[in-house]
Amino acid sequence: MKGLGRERPRRATLQRILPSIAILALGAFAAIIVVLHRLRPDYDAFTRHLSEYAVGRCGILMSIAFGLAGLALLLLAIGFLSSVQRSGFLKTACALLAGAALTNGLMAAFPTDLSIPEPGGLMKVTSTGRIHDALAALHAGFWLLIPPLLLLAVRRDDRWRRFLRPSAVAAAIEVISVGVVLALQHSLPGLGQRLWIGTLVGWCLWQAVLLRIVGATASSASGTGPGRAWR
């Protein structure tokens, strides 16, 4: 019993720390994207994909941004597993979050091809570019499933019930934004992707804030708070 009593505060502390680090990683990701728009004004934001910033000058910054996004998603997956009552919906959603985190890292390792060649250059289609495009499509597919699955998972947990309505709205907006990307893919692909990524970052920040709130509530409650999610 003494060991269990010491373990619960550690879990509650972890439930607060993980989403806090995720928030910092997401903020750093957003800051890098803003900076890249200033550093590469030659890339038209309406027609160029964000991943094209990884090619050429300042490419290392985009690779770091991919890594930060992957870290945030992985921390969210761990945070949900430690804070929400276990279910098939939760395990599937967290597995997909981990998959999205992995694809972010892989997209950094396999840079995309430029959609518009440099002045005087030729359009290149490389094997790494094809791999990147496949990873990007897989990543987008994950985000059609993750928000609704997490919503189904948290509705089974009493501590999350008061957040169901705003979470449902956030999930709907995120899924709709994937449709916006597809609708603008052939006309304004850069704009569509930026709208989606902005929505996605907002959704992730909302989930991280909720994890902190629920973690703080669990740590202040007596007895069964944080421990139940781990059983």
Structural summary, described in words:
This protein has 231 residues and is an all-alpha fold. The chain has one domain: Rhopdopsin 7-helix transmembrane proteins (Up-down Bundle), CATH 1.20.1070. The protein is 71% helix and 0% strand. It contains 6 helices and no strands. 35% of the residues are buried. Mean pLDDT is 89; it is low at 1-5 and 222-231.
How would the blueprint of this fold be written?
Blueprint: H1 2-39, H2 59-83, H3 88-109, H4 127-154, H5 164-183, H6 189-220
Helix pairs in contact: 1-2, 1-6, 2-3, 2-6, 3-4, 4-5, 5-6
From the structure above, extract its key features:
Rhopdopsin 7-helix transmembrane proteins; mainly alpha; disordered N terminus; 231 residues
| CATH C-level category | Mainly Alpha
Low-confidence region ranges: 1-5, 222-231
N-to-C span: 15 Å
Mean pLDDT: 89
What is the fold-level CATH name, i.e. the topology? Rhopdopsin 7-helix transmembrane proteins
Order of helices and strands: HHHHHH
Number of strands: 0
Main sheet characteristics: none
Looking at the structure, what is the overall shape? elongated
- Helical content, roughly? over 70%
Find the structural class using helix and strand composition.
mainly alpha
Cα gyration radius (Å) = 19 Å
- Beta-strand content: under 5%
**Number of helical segments with 4 or more residues:** 6
Could you give a quick summary of the protein structure above?
Helices cover 71% and strands 0% of the residues. It has 231 residues and is an all-alpha fold. The longest helix is centred in the first third of the chain and has 38 residues, at 2-39.
